[in-house]
Amino acid sequence: MRHALHRGEAEEAGDELRVRGHGGPFVLRIVETWCDRATSCVAIWVYLQTCGFNVHRKIFVFVINPQRANASSRTFFREECRLKEPLSAARRKEFEDFAAAIADGARSMSLPRFRRPVDVSLKGDASPVTEVDRGVEAMLRDRIEAAWPMHGVLGEEFGAEHTDAEYVWSIDPIDGTRSFISGWPLWGTLIALLRDGRPVLGVLDMPALNERWIGHVGVATTMNGEACRTRDCTSIAEATLYTTTPDMFTPDEWARFDRTSRAAYARRFGGDCYGYGMLASGYIDAVVESNLMPYDYLAIAPVVQAAGGVITDWEGRPLGLHSGSRVVAAATPQLHAALIASLASD
After folding, report:
1. In 3D, which of 196, 197, 232, 194 has the Cα closest to residue 216?
2. Which residues belong to the annotated binding site for Mg(2+)?
């Protein structure tokens, strides 16, 4: 299908949009979509590929008004952006090797303290924190600063530094501190690398289980070095759906989650970050959660996406440094769309 633009034209071809004019020709590749229910518009996030450059951000918004399904209702808007070279294979491997190395360092500090006496205190939000949380994060920050002094860092225990940098590391030293202090093995370390506010690399490490997922945009997710993939569940009725605890929802959110999860084949509770690893490996089909902070999900996003899944906020928007507290992750785009629709307010 061809579409007239203000200065040129665009032709749809599968998952590509071939544009002439507007400084082209170039090709837009559709990689993510989200639906704004308030305006009844669908926005498509794309990679712009031209002259050997990629842009990992929204360059064009392709708006469809469902009240007018004819071609004339489709409009393109252009955003200003700065073209950047894509990560080379060598640089991608350098980042991945570094993330794996510091995850090894975190594991070597946390695992010997697991199921041993540790000092526990309460933070301002009444959540527990241990000396191990703080020690691991301090080590991770030191190693990141030594290796990448121009990069920013966001961490659970010591806050944010230089998060306006092109590259920012997000770290959660022990995701599931309550599990850690309870002797329950479903706690993990989360490490993410963001570029321009979007996660491009994620490490989900489960020290007590000796399991590690690594997800990198454009490269298949691995679990302990072996490629893994989400399974092909497309409907809520067939889905096994997880969340960590009912306590993470407000009353309104719980009503929506309860309605959605009761329609599933099975709903289960518990797991913290581990549920997302099980999703990436094809053992469960969805995770729906709330009351999260960015460091809780930024590492998880590339792991799920590079395994073939979809992960967004409850409104279907891609996750980034400034996203909110609610997350829905699904094995397939069809299941994700069904969950978004079911979780919507009445």
Report:
1. 194
2. 156, 172, 174-175, 296
